[in-house]
C-alpha cells in the first residue's frame, strides 16, 4: 500500500527512501523525490522513481540524507535486523521518520503464500515441513521471520519514539482498508470489511495497556512508525 503516513507528512522537496522496493509501485504516488533501493528490481517497475542497487545493511548514502524511509515486507528477509535498522537510522535526518511493516512471526497468517506455521519451524526442519524443495530452499536461505517484541527492541535502540501503528492507521485510513476508495494498486479485501465492523470496539479498549500489549504481539501485520533517530 502507499506509505499513508508519508503521503501527508512529506512535500515535493523531501527525499524519501523506498527500501526493498522491488518495483516501486508502493511509493510512486508520494509527493516527494523517492530513491528506490533493492538488490534485484522487477522488470515492470514504475518509471516515477530513481533506482539504486544496494544492500539495506550497507546503504550507499551519506548520514542524514533522507526525510523519511518506507520499508514494507522487507525485515523478514534480513538476517541481521539490528544492522538493518541502525543503517536506516544513520541515513535519516534528525527529525526523520521510518515506516516499517512486516508479517508477525507468531501470528496465524500466511506470508508469501506459505503455511502460516512455517515461521515457527526451525530452519533445519523446514525441508521436511514443506513439500516443495524450491520453497524449502527459499525459506531456509532467504527468510528470517521476526516477531514484534524483537522488532520493537531494535527500533527502540535506534529511535527516540516508536509507535505500534497498526490500529491507528486502520482507523485513520479506514476507507482504504475496506475498499471504499481505491488509493493503491492493491485491491480491497473482504477481511478488511470484516475487521471494520469490530474496529470501533477494539479502539474503545485500546487505551488499556495490557490489551495493547497482547494485541501488538498477536496482530498478523506489524506496522511501526519510528521517529527521531538516535545519533
Automatic annotation (TrEMBL):
A GO BP entry is:
methylation
| MF-aspect GO terms | S-adenosylmethionine-dependent methyltransferase activity
The record's section on InterPro entries has: Erg6_SMT_methyltransf, Methyltransf_11, SAM-dependent_MTases_sf
Q: Which domain of life is it from?
A: Archaea
Q: Where in this chain does the record put each Methyltransferase type domain?
A: 17-99
Note the Pfam families from the entry: Methyltransf_11
Going by the UniProt record, its keywords in alphabetical order are:
Methyltransferase, Transferase
Q: Which Gene3D superfamilies match?
A: Vaccinia Virus protein VP39
Its name, as the record gives it, is Methyltransferase domain-containing protein
Which species? Answer: Haloferax marinum
Instruction: Give the organism's phylogenetic lineage.
Output: Archaea, Methanobacteriati, Methanobacteriota, Stenosarchaea group, Halobacteria
Amino acid at each position: 500500500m502507499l506509505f499513508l503516513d508519508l503521503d501527508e507528512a512529506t512535500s515535493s522537496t523531501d527525499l524519501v527512501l523506498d527500501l526493498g522496493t522491488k518495483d516501486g509501485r508502493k511509493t510512486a504516488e508520494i509527493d516527494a523525490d523517492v530513491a528506490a533501493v533493492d538488490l534485484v528490481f522487477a522488470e515492470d517497475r514504475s518509471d516515477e522513481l530513481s533506482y539504486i542497487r544496494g544492500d539495506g545493511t550497507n546503504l550507499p548514502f551519506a548520514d542524514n540524507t533522507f526525510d523519511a524511509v518506507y520499508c514494507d515486507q522487507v525485515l523478514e528477509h534480513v538476517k541481521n535486523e539490528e544492522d538493518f535498522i541502525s543503517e536506516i537510522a544513520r541515513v535519516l535526518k534528525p527529525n526523520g521518520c521510518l515506516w516499517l511493516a512486516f508479517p508477525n512471526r507468531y501470528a496465524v497468517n500466511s506470508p508469501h503464500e506459505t503455511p502460516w506455521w512455517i515461521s515457527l519451524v526451525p530452519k533445519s526442519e523446514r525441508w521436511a515441513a514443506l513439500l516443495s524443495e524450491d520453497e524449502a530452499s527459499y525459506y531456509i536461505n532467504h527468510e528470517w521471520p521476526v516477531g514484534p517484541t524483537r522488532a520493537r527492541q531494535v527500533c527502540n535502540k535506534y529511535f527516540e519514539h516508536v509507535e505500534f501503528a497498526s490500529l491507528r492507521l486502520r482507523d485513520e485510513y479506514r476507507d482504504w482498508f475496506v475498499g471504499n476508495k481505491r488509493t493503491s494498486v492493491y485491491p480491497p479485501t473482504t477481511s478488511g470489511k470484516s475487521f471494520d465492523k469490530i474496529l470501533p470496539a477494539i479502539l474503545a479498549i485500546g487505551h488499556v495497556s495490557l490489551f495493547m500489549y497482547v494485541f501488538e504481539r498477536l496482530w498478523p501485520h506489524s506496522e511501526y512508525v519510528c521517529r527521531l533517530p538516535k545519533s
